[in-house]
Design brief:
heterodimer; A: alpha+beta; SH3 type barrels; CBS-domain; 21 strands; B: mainly alpha; Amino acid/polyamine transporter I; 2 strands
């Protein structure tokens, strides 16, 4: 095991006795959990020279020498070609890394490498103070710390630009296994370009869920860094209320472009939500809710819901309406009662008709307190003729009245 | 059906929602756009405001950071320049305004283009050695200047008739509470309000009844004197105007404000406006003391901002003293918060620690601890009677003098890195002005350090 700070003081020598100072090492991030060192780099006559690791014959740890057959085998690397390699010193050392186990970002104060089958592998990142002391002591201080060592298997290295993902740079992808809330937490500590890179890295469904729980200003900042095609894909999958909040902040030209290119259904929902003024219930409600007509039986309702659950934002309460055209609100059924009642019961028999409602143009803060006080997962929103037009979820209500320092958006029920 | 008894007092839905909905108190104007050939009216509430509000909302990190530079030390230096040499040094301020604006704008651009603070970029591009050096100097220098701000608060409050033993702890707690419990947006607004106190200086300048033709001469006809007091004051003005913590704070707060490269324009205006506003206030201080102390009593020595305020009283009356005191109190309060914040930003960015005023204490423990420690130590030491602040400030000036050219080189290298900056890379004109500023600063630093070194051996670099 050797630290990069120590390895940086090594020389490369060949059989003819030619010697060069090791400047950097490249690794293949995609090859395994512990990326192998692929090339050694040194400088000769002001040129950056690359020597493949397979040219290494042995490492003399005591005299700090990497012995190779012939240094003449090295080839010069242009400044542009150099950017194609992931260099340990230039790119990973001192960079921001994601510690996936503890869900936080760290700086790589040093890197730990280990010899395995004649090769050298990147095993972990060292975030300890000891690592800093080692680096600034020019080799006089050599102690290793047991704390602050992060197994590379659970570390994600970001380049700080979403373009890196599109150009096929290597990533662990373990980040995709974290829940959206945890990813959003991580993102909040990252610079916005790193955050956009991370969102680009995620599968669309997870990226959407992550964006939805990010504070709106951060969501906008990250969203604007995404490529148009990806941005449209994500907007199409996003809950309409979250999408409307985002689209409502975009510049007019951009907003128009997205609304025109989104699937018609999603575009209409967003437009509907955006048509309500900022300080009204309509501006915080979701219009992606489940409603059924009262004449359906419980069994029929279950079948109908099976198709609609996957693409509906709020599913915990099922609203019962008069008919498929006018949607006059009659009552509500909880998901629990839908599964506990007999199959033959009609929905209008088991629904709760005693529900409070909100109007779409009600003052938003008053309405938010009503939702919170009601202890319901959501309160339906109706128009002048009592037609159902949406619901204000408890998440949206809490966010409305939460102190301004509240960082994340709540999306527990949607 | 539900148990009817439980539902007593409730009515079925039909009667609950009867009647017209209550409209909200304020319905805002909408935005009409064409989507797929249909004309649609959307809420237009988050559109940028128009008129004066639009310009006022742009102001933020730039104005706060640059105004914080007009702190107790700054007031002392500018007042001293006016009291000692009349209007002769105003031309320096005009040149410095250009340099200052260029440097501040570059920092704002770096922040918006990368989303990272200055120390984070220095760590990533230039390694741990330089980072530790800069962080070390920043912590010591900013710690010392924070102390001087609390001394300034004490002195200003005593001029206003309040004991420092009351004002310093109260102000320290207020500043601490504001940053720990406020959001960035709220803190920024309060900082912006604090900058209003600087208008005390133009008012004081007008009250002094300056000879405006002399002011114009001082501003546009450069005067160079080769005596040590003049040269050191000139260097002092440069060091007071362009200070590392101002650059660090500007960039970090642009990042925390959420400015991104797609919306960089307003940040540029903020940086330019802040630099011009701040230097106009500095010029006002020079004019105020030049028109009074210098014009009436001839060349006078001033060592602190409080001295300047006291010296004005017999010449202009107590109102000018009060104005100076109010200005000093506001300036020290602003810098007393900005300096610990800049330090907390710098340390956190260097070591990858979660940072930001927007965090709660649980998530930003280290960031807020650094901020708290600087406030507590600064305010605590400022309460010690006869604390030798002057030698401390001289030492800090040396530290900042060493740091400034280094920081400036890093800023210039970073802002010219296309991989980092993309289209926001420095233009040729910016580079000429930036490197010109560097030359100016390095010359000043050599003069300052060389002069102080030679003085140790009893050699005077310039005549008296």
């Amino acid at each position: 095991m050797i630290m990069l700070s120590e390895l940086s003081r090594f020389n490369i020598t060949d059989e003819k006795g030619v010697c060069a100072k090791l400047v950097d090492l490249s690794v293949a991030l995609l090859d395994s959990d512990y990326p192998p060192v692929t090339n050694l780099f040194y400088i000769k006559d002001n040129s950056f020279m690359k020597l493949p690791w397979k040219a290494v014959e042995s490492i003399d740890w005591k005299s700090r020498k990497i012995k190779v057959a012939d240094l003449e085998l090295a080839e010069a690397v242009s400044a542009e070609a150099k950017n194609e390699y992931v260099l340990l010193k230039r790119e990973i050392l001192d960079a921001l890394l994601l510690d996936l186990e503890n869900r936080r970002s760290i700086r790589a104060n040093d890197l730990l490498l280990e010899e395995e089958n004649g090769g050298l592998q990147l095993r972990s990142a060292d975030n300890s103070i000891t690592a800093i002391l080692r680096r600034i002591s020019f080799g006089f201080y050599r102690r290793n710390s047991k704390n602050g060592i992060y197994d590379w298997k659970y570390v994600e290295f970001l380049r700080g630009t979403p373009a890196a993902v599109r150009s096929g740079a290597g990533y662990h992808m373990r980040i995709t296994r974290l829940p959206p809330g945890d990813i959003a937490q991580l993102i909040n500590y990252l610079p916005y370009l790193h955050a956009a890179e991370l969102i680009t890295l995620l599968p669309d469904a997870k990226a959407v869920k992550t964006l939805e729980v990010m504070p709106i200003e951060r969501r906008l900042q990250v969203f604007e860094e995404l490529e148009t095609e990806q941005a449209i894909r994500l907007l199409a999958l996003m809950a309409p209320d979250a999408a409307a909040d985002l689209v409502g902040l975009l510049q007019t030209g951009m907003m128009k472009q997205y609304l025109e290119r989104l699937p018609r259904k999603q575009s209409s929902r967003i437009i509907e939500l955006l048509s309500y003024p900022e300080n009204t219930v309509g501006a915080i409600m979701t219009n992606d809710i489940i409603y059924l007509t009262g004449n359906l039986t419980v069994a029929e309702a279950r079948t109908a819901l099976r198709e609609r659950f996957s693409d509906t934002d709020f599913i915990y309460l099922i609203y019962i309406v008069s008919d498929e055209e006018r949607h006059i609100l009659l009552g509500v059924i909880s998901l629990r009662s839908l599964f506990s009642e007999d199959d033959d019961c009609r929905l209008e028999e088991i629904m709760d008709p005693y529900i409070s409602t909100l109007n779409a143009v009600d003052e938003v803060n008053v309405a938010a307190y009503r939702v919170v006080d009601s202890q319901l997962a959501a309160m339906p929103v109706v128009g002048i003729d009592r037609e159902l037009i949406g619901a204000v979820t408890i998440d949206a209500a809490i966010m409305q009245i939460a102190p301004e320092t509240t960082a994340e958006a709540l999306r527990i029920f949607s | 059906m539900k148990d009817e008894q439980l539902l007593q007092g409730l009515e079925p839905i039909d009667s609950v929602t009867a009647g017209l909905p209550t409209p909200p108190r304020r319905l805002s104007a909408g935005l009409r756009i064409q989507i797929r050939g249909r004309s649609i009216k959307l809420r237009g509430l988050k559109r940028p405001p128009k008129g004066l509000w639009r310009w006022l909302l742009i102001l933020g990190p730039g104005l706060v950071a640059t105004s914080a530079g007009n702190d107790a030390g700054g007031i002392a230096t500018y007042s001293s320049a006016g009291a000692r040499f009349g209007y002769d040094l105003i031309w320096v301020m005009l040149i410095l305004t250009v340099s200052f604006a260029v440097v501040q704008e570059m920092c704002a651009r770096l922040g918006a283009a990368t989303g990272r603070g200055l120390l984070a970029l220095i760590r990533e591009r230039f390694g741990i050695g330089w980072t530790l050096f800069i962080v070390g100097v920043v912590v010591i220098a900013n710690g010392g200047v924070t102390l001087s701000e609390f001394v300034g608060i004490g002195a200003a409050s005593e001029l206003l008739g309040v004991s420092r033993y009351i004002s310093v702890p109260v102000c320290a707690v207020l500043l601490w509470y504001l940053v720990i419990y406020g959001s960035y947006a709220r803190v920024e607004k309060i900082f912006l309000l604090m900058t209003l106190v600087f208008f005390a200086y133009p008012v004081a300048a007008f009250m002094g009844g300056p000879d405006w033709s002399e002011v114009a001469r001082g501003a546009f006809i450069p005067t160079l004197r080769f005596d040590s007091a003049y040269i050191f004051l000139l260097v002092g003005i440069l060091g007071t105007t362009i200070t590392p913590y101002i650059q660090i704070f500007q960039q970090s707060s642009v990042v925390e404000r959420g400015a991104a490269r797609h919306h960089y324009g307003p940040e540029r205006i903020d940086a330019y406006f802040g630099s011009i506003f701040s230097n106009l206030m500095s010029i006002s201080m020079i004019v105020a003391t030049a028109a009074t102390l210098y014009a009436v009593a001839g060349s006078s020595n001033i060592e602190s901002a409080a001295d300047a305020a006291k010296a004005l009283e017999p010449v202009v009356g107590s109102s000018a003293t009060l104005l100076f005191a109010v200005g000093l109190l506001g300036a020290s309060l602003l810098a007393g918060a900005v300096l610990p914040l800049a330090t907390a930003y710098a340390v956190s960015e260097a070591f990858g620690i979660p940072k930001g005023v927007n965090l709660d204490f649980r998530r930003g423990k280290t960031f807020f601890s650094i901020f708290t420690a600087l406030i507590v130590i600064g305010a605590g030491i400022a309460l010690i009677p006869n604390v030798p602040i002057f030698p401390l400030l001289v030492g800090i000036q040396v530290l900042n003098g060493v740091l400034l050219p280094i920081i400036l080189v890093f800023i210039l290298l970073l802002v010219n890195d296309r991989r980092l900056m993309g289209d926001l890379k420095n233009s040729r004109a910016c580079n000429v002005l930036g490197w010109g500023t560097f030359l100016l600063i390095i010359t000043a630093v050599i003069i300052m350090l060389g002069g102080q070194l030679l003085e140790l051996f009893g050699i005077q670099l310039f005549g008296q």
